Amino acid sequence: MRNLSEARRQKLNEPEGDDARVTESDDAFDYPAPPDAIPEWALDEASNWRRLSLFDMEVKAEERSGLEVEIRQTPLPPGVWGFHVARGGRVRLCVNSGLPHIWRRFATFHELYHLIAHSFGENFWGRTFQPLSKFESEADLFAWAAIWPEWMEGVCGAGE
Questions:
Q1: Please, where are the H alpha helices in the chain?
Q2: Fewer Cβ in 10 A, N or C end of the chain?
Q3: pLDDT value of position 3
Q4: Structural domain spans, the chain
Q5: Whether residue 12 has pLDDT greater than 60
Q6: Burial 108-135 (b: 16+ CB within 10 A, else e)
């Protein structure tokens, strides 16, 4: 595991640009603090996903999953970060457009990890000996690993 800098343990949650028009209160979201360490498996898995555009994320997710993937940033109810729906050979990831840029990326990577690593769905995982919270934690660690360079540079929502 790699230890993370305490200096970057801050909540950067001010919407910029087009996101500033969102009327949802920032209180609707509970922004997580970075983990104390990111496991090597997450850093390795996320290394090829860092800094990708949404389009490139879709292409990479399609290559990995064999499914047609669409990522949408759309208004969702307060407190809902995102979700994905799969039907047939298609998957749609919906991420709350009310989130600041860095947290939209976090939510996108979180949902993408479920798609590429937890592809059997909640019903299957519910029949395993692993709690569903373990899969949520894995998705969060992958998301942190994917956004970490942007987080460390303070790009978190500034000047896109």
A1: 40-46, 54-65, 101-117, 121-126, 132-153
A2: C
A3: 45
A4: 37-150
A5: no
A6: bbbbbbbbbebeeeeeeeeeeeeeeeeb
Name the fold adopted by 37-150: Arc Repressor Mutant, subunit A (1.10.10)
The tokens for 64 are 């990995």
pLDDT of residue 6: 40
Q: Does residue 51 come out as left (phi exceeding 0), alpha (psi in the -120 to 50 range) or beta?
A: left
* The two structure tokens encoding residue 1: 């595991």
According to DSSP H, which parts of 21-131 are helical?
Answer: 40-46, 54-65, 101-117, 121-126
pLDDT score of 159: 34
Res. 17 pLDDT band, cuts 50 70 90: very low
Residue 26 has a CB neighbour count (10 Å cut-off) of 14
Residue matched to tokens 């939209």 = 104
Residues 138-150 pLDDT 10s: 999 999 999 999 9
CA distance 135 to 110: 10
Percent of the chain residues past pLDDT 70, beyond the cut: 70
Question: At 125, which amino acid appears?
Answer: W
Determine how β-strand 68-74 pairs with β-strand 90-96. Answer: parallel
